[in-house]
Amino acid sequence: MIKTLKTLGFAAVAGFSLSAFMAIPFASAQGDLLKRKTTEETILENLHKARPDINFGQPRPSMIKGLYQVQVPGGPVLFVTPEGDKFIAGEVFGIDSTGFAKIEDPYVIEERKKALASLDSKNSINFKPKGKAKAVVYVFTDIDCGYCRKLHSQMHAYDEGGQQKPGYNDLGIEIRYLAYPRAGIPSPSADKLVSTWCAKDKLDAMTKLKSDQSVPNATCDNPVAAQFQLGGQLGVNGTPALFLPNGTLMPGYLPPEELAKTLGI
User: Fold this and answer.
1) Alpha helix segments (H runs only) across the chain
2) Is 198 an active-site residue?
3) Which among 174, 165, 173, 180 has a CA at the least distance from the CA of 224?
């Protein structure tokens, strides 16, 4: 009987010790799991340590296996290693038998479409065709940008080498302007955009300022800063920047007939 008790006692002690022993590393493992950073957190932390002045976008897996992509507002897309210690900046091209072609992440395209669909048309400056619009194109613009001015000068029929050509509106394209002062905020360019958005006749103010004519300085509750921020988030880093209905970003100027062809109208 005594022997049995001793045996049981040993078993109880052994069982207790084993439980206590197992509990310690388990608790430690739980703590490690709680403390362990995700890949996305690691990437953001390292980027912010290197450049605390930049408000980097949220990292997400990219089309290039093993790399994450991060949008720099008003700058390029970064393709970053999971460790967050290296990156490549630039565009992604597909390779096939026909050559090279720029490709965009379907996720990014969908996010652009959602962002633009959520915009109130009252906050953009809209140049509409006389009839029903065949397509709506959002254009991030700057008053002092040369190609922005060229694009605007071709809103309606224009002369090119003695030949009359149809403008964007003539081809059924509605242009919705969003503000993107390239010099940032504050800047003289931003002030001109604010005066445009605060003018009684916004379309007239836009046309005059892009023709080097003056308009009265004006201030009001306006969307210029918000649109500038949105442009950076959507990958705009220059003007004009055209966003097509399918979410495609086309940086730079595109003549009316070329744009119509791209839109399939």
Assistant:
1) 2-35, 39-50, 106-117, 146-153, 188-197, 202-209, 224-233, 256-263
2) no
3) 180
The type of residue at 126 is N
Q: How many whole angstroms separate alpha carbon 236 and alpha carbon 196?
A: 21
Domain range for 82 is 39-103
C-alpha to C-alpha distance for 251 and 226, rounded to whole angstroms: 20
Q: Which member of 144, 148, 149, 176 is catalytic?
A: 148
Note whether 68 and 40 are within 8 A (CB): yes
Active-site residue (options: 112, 149, 176, 182): 182
Catalytic, 148? Answer: yes
Q: Is 212 within a domain? A: yes
Strand ranges inside 121-196, DSSP E? 125-127, 135-141, 158-160, 163-165, 173-179
**Reported pTM:** 0.80
For the chain, the residue count is: 265
- Tokens standing for 249? 């970003």
Residue 219 shares a structural domain with residue 249: yes
pLDDT digits (tens, 9 = 90+) for 90-129: 999 999 999 999 998 899 999 999 999 999 999 999 999 9
Task: Specify whether 142 is catalytic.
Answer: yes
> Hey, how many other C-beta atoms are within 10 angstroms of the C-beta on 9?
10
The model's pLDDT over 165-189, given as tens digits with 9 standing for 90+, comes to: 999 999 999 999 999 999 999 999 9
Select from 60, 44, 57, 72 the least CA-distant residue to 105: 60
